[in-house]
Design a protein that fits this description.
The chain has 334 residues and is α/β, with parallel strands linked by helices. The protein has 2 domains: 6-95 and 178-328, Rossmann fold (3-Layer(aba) Sandwich); 109-177, no CATH class. It is 32% helix and 24% strand. Helix 4 (113-124) packs across helix 5, helix 5 (130-143) packs across helix 7 (162-174) and helix 7 (162-174) packs parallel to helix 8 (192-209). The longest helix is centred in the middle third of the chain and has 18 residues, at 192-209. The chain is globular. The relative contact order is 0.13.
Length: 334
Amino acid sequence: MNERKPILTIDRLVAAFDTESGWVRAVDGVSLALKAGSILGLVGESGCGKSVTALSIMRLLPRPAGVIESGSIRLNGTDLVRLPAEKMQRIRGGRISMIFQEPMTALNPVHRIGRQLLEVFEMHRPELGGDNRFAAAVNLMQRVGIPEARERMAAYPHQISGGMRQRVMIAMALAGKPDVLIADEPTTALDVTIQAQILELILDLQKETGMAVILITHDLGVIARICEDVAVMYAGQIVESAPVRALFNDPRHPYTQGLLAAMPRLTSAAKQPLPIIQGTVPALDRLPPGCRFQNRCPHVMDRCKKRSPEPVQVDDTHWSRCFLLEHHDGIDTQ
C-alpha cells in the first residue's frame, strides 16, 4: 500500500458563478486528495467542471462573477481558500503552478517570451541575480526541448509554433520549482506527435523533480499511460475515484463504464462505430433532480430520479457515487 501523504487536499469544494439564470454551481461538493510525488488524472467531458476546479485551486476564478462558496483547499495543511490575496500570490506560480489549455491566450502577445519567463524568476526565485536568472531561464527552455533557446528568449509568442508555445508555458510553470503542477488539457490543439512529446516531457520532469501533478484531460488513454490515480467528473461532481488500474479493470459508475466503452481498441472490429453515451452533459442551471447522470444512464432506477446518490466505498482506495453499488451489496434500490 502506498503510504505517501496527500500534499493537496480538496474537501467539499463548491464554486459558483453569477449568471442570468442566477447563481450556478459549476463545482459542487468536490473532494480530492493528491499524493506527494504522484500524478492524479481528472477526466470527464467538456463542461463537467474540471477547469473550474483547477482555477479554484489557483484562486483564479473570474471575479466578481465566480466565487468559492464553501469547502477547503489545503496545501500541506494551509487552507488556500482563506489565505489573504497577497499570500496567495506568492504561492501561485511558486508552490503551485498551472499549464493553461491555450498558450496563445495565456501568454501576453505584446511581450517577448524571455521577459515573461524572467518575471516568474523575479517573483519566485529572488535569490538569483539578473545574469543568473537569464542563464536559468535559458537552461529551463533547453530542458523543455526548445531549440536555440537563447534566441527564442527574444521572440514574441506569435513567432513560434503551438508546440513551442506550450513548452514555454511548461517552462514558466516550472520556473518557481512548484510542489504541485496543474496541467489543464496541455496537449489541446497540438498534433499527435507533439502531444506525445509534451506528455513525455511532463512525465520526465515529474520524475526528475518529484512534484505532484494534476492532469486534466478528456482522454482516458492519456490517463492510463501516465497517471497513478484518477477521478471521474460529471456535471460538477466527482462520480468515481480510484487507482488507475482499479478503475480500468473494475469501473463501477455507469458514466465511467460508458467512457471506457467508447475508447478505441486494437481488438475492436474494423469499420464498426464505437459505443457512445447517448445525450449530453446537462446545463448546470437545468440539472435534473436526483442523480445528474439519470437522463443518460442505461441502468436508471426510480430512486435515481428522486435523490442524489452518496459516495459508496468499493474498497479503501476506490469509491463511486451510484445506487448500483448498494444494489450489488444486496440492498433493494427500487
